[in-house]
Specification:
The chain has helices at 16-32, 49-56, 82-87, 98-103, 108-120, 133-137, 141-153, 158-161, 182-200, 202-207, 221-225, 242-249; strands at 5-9, 39-43, 61-65, 92-95, 124-129, 164-168, 210-212, 232-235. It has 252 residues and is of the alpha/beta class. It has two domains: 10-66; 124-252, Alpha-Beta Barrel (TIM Barrel). Strands 7-6-5-4-3-2-1-8 form an eight-stranded parallel beta sheet. α1 runs parallel beside α12 (242-249) and α7 (141-153) crosses α9. The longest helix is centred in the last third of the chain and has 19 residues, at 182-200. The chain binds phosphoenolpyruvate.
């Protein structure tokens, strides 16, 4: 059975003290929730990982980095390796976010390497994919999403796929206030699950968690999460306020 997950992506927001306070608020709210129906993950800046891990302690909350290097170690000034991320106690890394693909030219090949390094170091991967507005409008969006998934993930074995969560994030819906309709999102989630079924068989497809991301908030999360192939959300803006984030966590 696949897991429902709500993961926050704090992006480049909060100082360490602010992030620690936000993590405390989220952990307290999760602890107070008697009937939690999903796993909760906080995706924080590198600088915050150890301090937030300490806040999490034994609480039932996962910790994600938002990137890792495509090299193991050495002369890569400013980079942070998957082994370094894992050594903080983080258990996930977000890879392939459209902001990294777009602003930092992350290619399918580079992401393939990052995925391998993350898995080798015991991290689970939240792998983002999604089309631009132009690709949605010219009808090439399924080709784009298919290529993103095939070229960076389909070298993995079925056993390795158990450590991959996919996040469908239409770029035109990220931070814009424009959410994909629940039907539009469901169509793509079913398409992605179909790709997984063709490559790995029905069991792997059925077991893979597929998240929706793009202006998800407490008001639209219940409708999105009610769809059969939407297993939760990757949440940007609304993850920066514990009350908003918890409004989405409790949407199941
Ligand atoms: C994101 O960037 O992962 C995201 C989904 O952002 P927002 O929720 O702010 O649209």
């Amino acid at each position: 059975m696949r897991k429902n997950i709500v993961a926050g992506n704090w992006k480049m927001n909060t100082t360490v003290p602010e992030g620690v306070q936000l993590a405390k608020d989220v952990c307290a709210a999760v602890a107070a929730e008697a009937n939690l129906k999903c796993d909760v993950i906080m995706g924080v800046p590198f600088t915050h990982l150890m301090a937030v891990k300490e806040v999490i302690g034994d609480a039932n909350v996962g910790l994600a980095a938002q990137n890792c290097a495509d090299h193991t170690s050495g002369a890569y000034t400013g980079e942070v390796s998957a082994a370094m991320v894992a050594s903080t106690g983080a258990n996930y890394v977000i890879l392939g976010h459209s902001e990294r693909r777009g602003y930092y030219n992350e290619s399918y090949e580079m992401l393939k390497t990052k995925v391998d390094l993350a898995l080798e170091n015991g991290l689970k991967v939240i792998f983002c994919c999604g089309e631009s507005l132009e690709e949605r409008e010219n009808g090439s969006f399924k080709d784009v999403i298919g290529a993103e998934i095939r070229d960076s993930l389909f070298h993995l074995t079925a056993e390795q796929m158990a450590n991959i969560v996919i996040a469908y994030e239409p770029i035109w819906a990220i931070g814009t206030g424009k959410t994909a309709t629940s039907d539009q999102a469901q169509e793509i989630h079913a398409f992605i699950r179909g790709l997984l079924a063709d490559k790995y068989g029905a069991q792997v497809a059925d077991d893979t968690t597929i998240l929706y991301g793009g202006s998800c908030k407490p008001s639209n999360a219940p409708e999105l999460f009610a769809k059969p192939d939407i297993d939760g959300g990757l949440i940007g803006g609304a993850s920066l306020k514990a009350a908003d984030f918890m409004g989405i966590v409790t949407a199941f």
